[in-house]
Specification:
This protein is of the alpha/beta class. The protein has 2 domains: 130 residues, NAD(P)-binding Rossmann-like Domain (Rossmann fold, 3-Layer(aba) Sandwich), CATH 3.40.50.720; 162 residues, NAD(P)-binding Rossmann-like Domain (Rossmann fold). Helix content is 36%, strand content 14%. It is built from 14 helices and 12 strands. The protein has a 7-stranded parallel beta sheet, with helices on both faces. A 5-stranded parallel beta sheet has the order 2-1-3-4-5. Helix 13 links the parallel strand 11 and strand 12. Helix 1 runs parallel beside helix 14 and helix 5 crosses helix 8. The longest helix is centred in the last third of the chain and has 19 residues. It is found in: Cytoplasm. GO terms for molecular function: glyoxylate reductase (NADH) activity; glyoxylate reductase (NADPH) activity; hydroxypyruvate reductase [NAD(P)H] activity; NAD binding. Belongs to the D-isomer specific 2-hydroxyacid dehydrogenase family. GyaR subfamily. Keywords: Cytoplasm, NAD, Nucleotide-binding, Oxidoreductase.
């Protein structure tokens, strides 16, 4: 019999087709996420699980799934999974890095430019009819934004996505600052980037882009104290995880002018609604669509399948997250 895999959301068909050659596949086809009680029931007889960031995969799930041997996260992040508990139980965990890097970097730039140049506010102004009602075709002080070319960008987190953002910044003739857990000499040389401690980066940057994973150390790393370090003309962009930013502090910063604007693709809770934040016209908002291109999402689906197929064949999955699990259990069902 083929091992059974449960996919908790309908991923692109290219990944599902690959998996069907090797697995008995069940897909939760509904648009809304799988209810917790349904997930706990369905994992009782699965060997593999494909899951999403919004689903908490913890001890309760592992207890309910005695046959579970591998969890493939359809995301680059994996803070939704109890990695330590999975490793103890010999359960492999994989993610989908690389294939969404350029898509996410592109969206970071879309948010940066939209926030700096009032793109969303201008769009509303035109399509609401307000432009026509005012009867002013053009005015020297209409929708003044901030220059991007030649300015300083500070990138917090300099992994694949952070460096892809920096490559795009080179095309804008920008001074590139970055901070990370360790210096990246080769990337510094290639991109002309300068390493700075976080506080210095915040003080010097005209644009700050967050591209760090969510950890205990990065939770609310952008808080009131650090927002107050930024320039009043600065723009903050977050394509990392929502909890990297203290939202209440950010709202104060935007309302009181500590910073000029923000672009957010991620939020502390998702789906998200905050009447106070959403009423502000100096923030651009998107619903966690950093990887939402046809190419990126199909690449993620293919990588999920490759990870599961490699494991089934007794091979180490190409993007194994918890390599310590190799000491606990060999790959394979």
């Amino acid at each position: 019999m083929k091992p059974k895999v449960l996919i908790t959301r309908a991923i692109p068909e290219n990944g599902i087709e690959l998996l069907r050659e090797h697995f008995e596949v069940e897909v939760w086809e509904h648009e809304h996420e799988i209810p917790r009680e349904v997930l706990l029931e369905k994992v009782k007889d699965v060997d593999a699980l494909v899951t999403m960031l919004s689903e908490k995969i913890d001890r309760e799930v592992f207890d309910a799934a005695p046959r579970l041997r591998i969890v493939a996260n359809y995301a680059v992040g994996y803070d939704n999974i109890d990695i330590e508990e999975a490793t103890k139980r010999g359960i492999y965990v994989t993610n989908t890095p690389d294939v969404l890097t350029d898509a996410t970097a592109d969206l970071a730039w879309a948010l940066l430019l939209a926030a700096a140049r009032h793109v969303v506010k201008g769009d509303k102004f035109v399509r609401s009819g307000e432009w026509k009602r005012r009867g002013i075709a053009w005015h020297p002080k209409m929708f003044l934004g901030y220059d991007v070319y030649g300015k300083t960008i500070g990138i917090v987190g300099f992994g694949r996505i952070g460096q892809a953002i920096a490559k795009r910044a080179k095309g804008f003739g920008m001074r590139i600052l970055y901070t990370a857990r360790s210096r990246k000499p080769e990337a510094e040389k290639e991109l002309g980037a300068e390493f700075k401690p976080l506080e210095e980066l915040l003080r010097e940057s005209d644009f700050v882009v967050l591209a760090v994973p969510l950890t205990k150390e990065t939770y609310h790393m952008i808080n009131e104290e650090r927002l107050r370090l930024m320039k009043p003309t600065a723009v903050l962009v977050n394509v990392a995880r929502g909890k990297v930013v203290d939202t209440k502090a950010l709202i104060r910063a935007l309302k009181e002018g500590w910073i000029a604007a923000a672009g957010l693709d991620v939020f502390e809770e998702e789906p998200y609604y905050d009447e106070e934040l959403f009423a502000l016209d100096n923030v651009v908002l998107t619903p966690h669509i950093g990887s939402a291109t046809f190419g990126a999402r199909e690449g993620m689906a293919e990588l999920v399948a490759k990870n599961l197929i490699a494991f089934k064949n007794g091979e180490v999955p190409p993007t194994l997250v918890n390599r310590e699990v190799l000491k606990v259990r060999r790959p394979g069902f």
